[in-house]
From TrEMBL:
Residues 182-282 form the Sulfide dehydrogenase [flavocytochrome c] flavoprotein chain central domain. GO terms for molecular function: flavin adenine dinucleotide binding; oxidoreductase activity. It comes from Thermocrinis minervae. This is Tat (Twin-arginine translocation) pathway signal sequence. SUPFAM superfamilies: FAD/NAD(P)-binding domain (SSF51905). Pfam families: FCSD-flav_bind (PF09242), FCSD_central (PF21706), Pyr_redox_2 (PF07992). Residues 378-438 form the Flavocytochrome c sulphide dehydrogenase flavin-binding domain. InterPro entries: FAD/NAD-bd_sf, FAD/NAD-binding_dom, FCSD_central, FlavoCytC_S_DH_flav-bd, FlavoCytC_S_DH_flav-bd_sf, SQRD, TAT_signal, TAT_signal_bac_arc. Residues 46-149 form the FAD/NAD(P)-binding domain.
């Protein structure tokens, strides 16, 4: 069985039984394989983008601008868009849900791409098809931008009950949806005790987000005069980025409320007894925001496009060209946003949006038979650290390519001095990017 056939079956949840129970495979596979989704024949190249987040939405809009004759289809499983950026401010009631929520129809109508609200269940790269519950869709180019998935197995191996229990009782809220609503309810109902936040090890979505979240929760406790402490368990030796800015806020605004614990490598999580065993000791919690390690979204695994380390073990992140975002093993597939690996780019909405514009230009050029020198993306990330008055800190990073060493080199600029001016700029930044993707 070839690789993409195997990954296709895996996508249907049938990878392990393919050879021993062929009838079952055929019955289930046939219902999807034989049916082509009802779409008009494309007039030009068809580009299918899976994932309507910060990366996918940007590719869809800018590809239509760069290549108006291409048929661009954006597939997203959620009916509407909820922004993780500014969600920490929303947890602290500094903005309304409206600020974070956007609809998919307006940009699709305005920019002329097709929006399909469905889930991609499997990918067959050798046939250039993505499979949905409504049938398969054929592509000339495929853009995979599914964001991240949680890796609870790092804590619980294959104990599904513990994984489910943790997801239900201590939601991470690094993927938007009900988890955010549940987390907000927890924070505002918290009465007394220790509220623990775990920082994921390795690469994870939005490096400053757990520290900003801790500041916003501490702000809520302080405002509501709750006798609670926020304990941050961080595997890193110090906060990165904006460490001095976060530490100043914790010490000056939330003394006695926030405890920052560096070098806290998690050994065991017991969500039932409410204890986390770490290299810095055991921590009991009253309530928690438990954030497991992150990995590239499931679709990248399904498509067999995960990079391997030198021992042949999956790194957890996509194996794409560092400059063109093209899958190393498949020139028809591009990987954008939080899924990518092997580059010094943070996993951020700003970064995903910036990459999306570059990828749109590259695909448009490829369709015209041209090669272009890809630009490098950039990043800006504000973090709110105070709610009254609202005050923020910021990092912005430009990147250059060192030809000699064939390396992407970051040049960061950080403002650790919190200010109301930066708080204002935070919302202007968000509005600017929402406008870019939706208005
Ligand atoms: C609390 C928090 C705060 C943050 N703050 C900031 C900030 O201030 N600034 C900043 O720049 N970034 C911030 N981020 C990071 C930012 O949210 C992510 O980096 C960004 O969302 C990545 O974009 P993406 O397109 O790669 O993934 P996403 O935005 O997650 O989009 C992926 C999409 O793919 C869809 N999808 C997945 N699988 C399928 C499938 N099989 N079929 C169909 N659709 C599928 C998902 O539903 C999702 O909509 C923050 C994140 C968090 C959690």
């Amino acid at each position: 069985m070839n690789t993409s056939r195997r990954s296709f079956l895996k996508g249907l949840g049938l990878g392990g039984v393919a050879l021993s129970t062929p009838k079952l495979v055929f019955a289930a596979a046939e219902t999807i394989v034989k049916k082509e989704a009802m779409l008009p024949e494309p007039k030009g190249n068809r580009v299918v983008i899976v994932g309507g987040g910060w990366a996918g939405l940007t590719v869809a809009k800018y590809l239509k601008k760069e290549a108006p004759n291409a048929e661009v289809i954006l597939i997203e499983k959620r009916p509407n868009f909820f922004s993780c950026p500014i969600s920490n401010e929303w947890l602290a009631d500094l903005v309304s849900l409206d600020f974070l929520s956007h609809d998919y129809n307006q940009p699709a109508a305005k920019y002329g791409y097709k929006f399909i609200n469905t889930t991609v269940l499997a990918i067959e790269r050798d046939k250039r098809r993505v499979y949905t519950p409504h049938g398969y869709i054929q592509y000339d180019y495929l853009v995979l931008a599914p964001g991240i998935k949680y890796n609870y197995s790092a804590w619980f191996k294959d104990n599904k009950d513990l994984i489910k229990y943790t997801m239900l009782h201590y939601p991470s809220a690094f993927i938007p949806g009900s988890e955010h609503l549940a987390l907000k309810r927890k924070i505002w109902n918290f009465e007394e005790g220790e509220f623990v936040i775990t920082v994921p090890p390795g690469a994870y979505r939005c490096p400053p987000a757990p520290y900003e979240r801790a500041a916003m929760i501490a702000y809520v406790f302080k405002k509501n005069k709750v006798k609670g402490r926020v304990v941050i368990l961080d595997p890193k030796p110090e906060i990165v980025p904006k460490g001095p800015g976060f530490m100043a806020a914790y010490n000056e605004l939330y003394a006695g409320i926030v405890e920052y614990v560096p070098n806290a490598h998690i050994k065991e999580v017991d969500p039932i007894k409410k204890v986390i065993k770490t290299s810095q000791g055991d921590f009991n919690f009253t309530d928690a925001n438990l954030n497991p390690p992150h990995q590239a979204g499931e679709l990248v695994w399904m498509a067999d496009l995960i990079a391997k380390d030198k021992d042949g073990k999956p790194t957890g992140w996509a194996d794409q060209d560092h400059l063109t975002f093209q899958a190393k093993s498949d020139p028809r597939v591009f990987l954008v946003g939080d899924v990518i690996g092997g580059v010094p780019y943070p996993k951020s909405g700003h970064m995903a949006n910036s990459q999306g514009k570059i990828v749109a230009k590259i695909i448009a050029a490829r369709m015209m038979g041209k090669d272009i020198t890809p630009a490098l993306p950039d990043n800006t990330c504000y973090s709110m650290v105070n709610g009254d008055p609202q005050e923020a800190i910021v990092i912005s990073v430009e990147y250059s390519f060192n030809e000699k060493e064939k390396k992407i080199v970051p040049k960061p600029k950080v403002i650790n001095q919190r200010s109301q001016q930066l708080a204002k700029a935070t919302y202007e930044w968000a509005k600017g990017l929402y406008r870019d993707m939706f208005a």
